[in-house]
User: Fold these one by one.
Assistant:
Number 1:
Amino acid sequence: MRSVKSPVKEWRTAAACLAVVIVIVVQALGLRAGWPQEPAEPRIDEEIAKQEKIYQRRGADVPSGYITNRGLSDYAELLPTGFCDALGRLGNSDRWLDIGAGAAQAILDYYAPEGDAASAEKCARPGARARAVAISIEDRRTDKWRQQAASLGDDRIRYLSGKSLRHYSVEELGKFQIITDVFGGFTYTADLSRFVDKVLRLLEVGGTFYTLLPGVHLEGGDKLGTWYLTELENAAGRPEKVCSWLKKTACAKVTCESKSDWKRPTELIKVEKVCSDVSVPRMKLLEFVSGYPPDRRFQLEQ
Ligand SMILES: C[S@@+](CC[C@H](N)C(=O)[O-])C[C@H]1O[C@@H](n2cnc3c(N)ncnc32)[C@H](O)[C@@H]1O
């Protein structure tokens, strides 16, 4: 006897088959797109813990790509046009903060005695030097730093370590005419908008933040086949450039110099604080993969 299937039963079977197909396709796409196979938050926490370990590596254990001793001439080459002249214009009562200073070689060069080999590049006018503060999560002070700090006395150069920028208050650090960041917190932080907000709060009105960001979508357009390190997206999930995001900040004048021919497309960024009511559009962290530097993906909040 021929069995007769009811239309309802047939529809249910077809729906069940379709559901199985959808699950298989979604899983396959998920694997191909490299989507997280576990919830994002614990994975991010694990990666941030791995990042902390990178900071603490010492001696032969320090990865060769994690450079901590760039001098002032490197800073002059890597930072936006005008950094050296601006540092040279600072007087004895002005202040310079270097975030993510590593061994603080740039500050040592700045304070090198006249006639020292490093002094040719020290971006300072004869006699005048700003007070300088170096911040690093891990303590990478050298004997040379200790000797120089002791001989200068009077708190001309300070080295702070043991925590990241976000854990210092403005009252604790005071305010600065110039803030620099060369492959420091701006490249490494897991909270980019909060980082920039703190930097701007630490600047005097009229002060300037000089930094750079490697492996980003450039203001002037991208090269094909680029491996990005820091990716931003708007609230709708469309790509957002770091410079267009920063330019939405209240009380900040942002200038970008795109370096498309560097090993990684890099944006040299200058942010001038033009009034006191700073407000940085918030971004949330979507992905973080530890490294030197880490891979990060952020999304603008509404
Ligand atoms: C690759 S080293 C760069 C050192 C130095 N600027 C140079 O170019 O030689 C990274 C530095 O950034 C620091 N760093 C990373 N994230 C930071 C944060 N959120 N606040 C303060 N320092 C940070 C690290 O502790 C380290 O001193």
Number 2:
Amino acid sequence: MNDDDGYFGEDVAARYDLSDMFDPAVVDPVVDFLVERVGSGRALELGIGTGRIALPLAKRGVNVHGIELSKAMVRRLREKSGNENIGVTIGDFATTTVDGRFSLAFLVFNTINNLTTQAAQVACFRNVAAHLEPGGCFVVEVGVPSLQRLPPGETIRPFHVSETRFGFDEYDIANQGLISHHFEIVDGKAVIHSFPFRYVWPAELDLMAQLAGMTLRERWSGWKREPFTSDSRRNISVWEKPAR
Ligand SMILES: C[S@@+](CC[C@H](N)C(=O)[O-])C[C@H]1O[C@@H](n2cnc3c(N)ncnc32)[C@H](O)[C@@H]1O
């Protein structure tokens, strides 16, 4: 881990945009969902990264500001067209404050799990609520913990296996933690990264929202408003700060 950039230092940032998460088929429904909820206000992205969502959102005419720990990720954002319309504050999104109020805040792609303690996740909800205008909403996209798929007594679960890429989640059930281990063969050499996470349950997220003075407005399993069921592998949840 790079001390300044957290787990998203130069080496991770350099390869970040190669992911299939940049496919328009993945990005467009996210942007459509957010555009429908921002209204005429501003949007705040926590963990803006290289601008995967923020840039197309800004191109749709939304005023976007980001908070981000990694300067290496933001350097990639700054190389892209349209970046000049996006402000970024470097800092921890659990505690960093920015000027002004927002009608929408969002935290996508499991990034709430990058906060590895419950206290930090609660602080994040409180920080978001303080930035939202009355009636504003907070959108989180995060996986549902896959403990049902972990055989009794086992702690390791593969999440990706192909000829050049392997990924394994290592669970620490007592502490509600997991480490995602990524192995990739690049130019004949193994590139290895391990990221620590704290997984979080939908009901626990609702309680965090309640502690921050927000209430659940929507919960889906996909950006096209697919229903959330007992089989859903992720949730896209929207909490609202009460209107005055
Ligand atoms: C999985 S990436 C997601 C980036 C972008 N939102 C996207 O959807 O592509 C997570 C990002 O959150 C940033 N991040 C992780 N923890 C953070 C924290 N506590 N405060 C600010 N940024 C953080 C990382 O540096 C990284 O850029």
